[in-house]
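User: Run a structure prediction on this.
Assistant: Running it now.
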Amino acid sequence: MTEAVDHKEESLFDAPPMAEQERMLEAILFAVAEPITLREIEARLPHGCDAAEAMVHLRKRYDGRGVQVVRVGDAYALRTAADLGYLMQKETVETRKLSRAAIETLAIIAYHQPTTRAEIEEIRGVSVSRGTLDQLLELDWIRFGRRKMTPGRPVTFVVTQEFLAHFGLESPRDLPGLKELRSAGLLENRPAFGGLPVLDSDEDEMEATEGQSELFED
């Protein structure tokens, strides 16, 4: 009789069936406003659940659907399928006017991260104003990275998860290469320096451009 009671008590701590764990993940992803990591999901699930395995099953179940579970950095979110994005065009178009300096600085950080202010200035060939970096920090498209183990321990900059989500990237490795950018007409066929095209010097670091660069349009 005692053994039966013990077995019943142990069963109370058994993890829910995988199908139920998938439903829980689905509910969490639907409710959160920002991409959420597996660790954060695991903390919300009952004892014994395997968020990683449940996520694999859930992503397969959503494969080919109008809404998909996508990975953004080390987090996950529900997103409209890429090929159906045109249906949301009116609702999602957002104008973000950046100065030429900000666009060039953002591109350098994205392709060369983690990078210091001095390295950005070396590639651009002109100084970078504090206002340019502040603008990108306020947009939450870049953040401070680890300090470099060099004299002065300069701070580095890296792109954020918000940047990846905005441009539909899983990681910075998914950024288009120079050949792709040139073939799309987004870059001139000019000699490259430091992995990026040679950039024109800025007359005014904080002067907004007439139109936003196509490379960073929504």
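The CA atoms of residues 26 and 58 lie 8 Å apart.
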